[in-house]
Sequence to fold (431 residues):
Amino acid sequence: MSCHTAQALIHGYIDSELDVGQTAELERHIHECKTCDIVYRNQLTLSSALRDSTLYFAAPEDLKRRVRTSLQIEAKTKTTRKQFGWGWSLMAASLAVVLIATTLWKFAPSFRSSANEGLVAQEVLADHIRSLQMTNHLTDVLSTDQHTVKPWFNGKVDFSPPVRDFADHDFRLYGGRVGYLNNRVVATVVYQRRSHFINLYIWPADPTSDAKESSLQLQGFNLIQWTSSGMSFWAVSDLNSVELQEFVRYVQQ
Amino acid sequence: MVETQKKLTSFEEAVLPHLDAAYNLARWLTRNDADAHDVVQEAYLRAFRFFGGFNGVDGRAWLLGIVRNTSYTWMQQNRSPGISVPLDDEIYEIESNELNPEALLQQTADSRMVRAALEQLPVEFREVLVLRELEEFSYKEIAQIIALPIGTVMSRLARGRKRLQQVLIHQKHVEVIN
Fold:
């Protein structure tokens, strides 16, 4: 056996992957060749060094909890979808009702005031702060997968909020939750950039509300509000206003 | 309802015990705690959805295949470096500094050195070394997990070990200079 062949076989030998014939031949060669013996011993040293238990990353305890919770949510989501197979026709019917109501509303006198908007902003901000203070209250469904988060809202809110991941632009989808704001149930989609969370609140827009985008700063937080496709959006974060604007552009695209 | 709960129970029995292996692989591939968390969670959700396709034989290998794919998707999305491998086919050529078993022994005695060296390796070598040495999979099982022929597994292991040895010896030199 040549040294070249022997050194190629050493790995299979260490890993017990050689057949009996190859093993015998290699052992004979190593016994006779000092160089190959050193190469073999070096590889053996390396191999046992890698088997050091401190190199093994055991799963942290909280990960186990997170995985179990998300699996349970996933299982429940599937059940809900199965049980309410007729949910779509129901949703279509309610959509029709909403459409009619919206049309009627359009002819009603508009009395939207900026004072009301200020109140909503306060409510939105209070909810944002609360969501960050309470452990595990940032999300009800924790997932970076838009195809998990979006269907999760089915049956929990009476509209279908747009849910997209912007991980490509470093705004990672983090999860979603349902809350109560502005006298109605709202969907909240949570995003993350670095260590900053963004709460994106969504609810069907008041038909009299202005589609114009506005931004404000309250207690050091940035808030951006706009209306599009019949939905009211509020984005809130401690992220700086430039990056929050950037986020809003992606949502609006 | 009952059916889904049953599926969840059998999934948890077959796959949840391998959480450590899943995290270990994800952590070595992404080299980051937070990313490994997200990858593992995502991988478990995917595994649950594809559980119907599991043949019931080896839950750990099956899961790690999914963890690996999820990690790669993650690294591509986050533009993580180091997915390409520079070619160096002269892997069996011996360098003089490799013939000093005492030096290597000294280096490997410090597990922090070994960890740092393994982390520096390109991901293709890192993954086969982790699967072989830390998870103790056979060549055949590794080939299944990374979806490549056994021959590739063998050559990557050989090249990976050679590189690891060089990195360790190089580290030694740097330390002496400092």
Observations:
- The longest helix of chain B spans residues 150-177.
- Chain B touches chain A through 53 residues (CB under 8 Å).
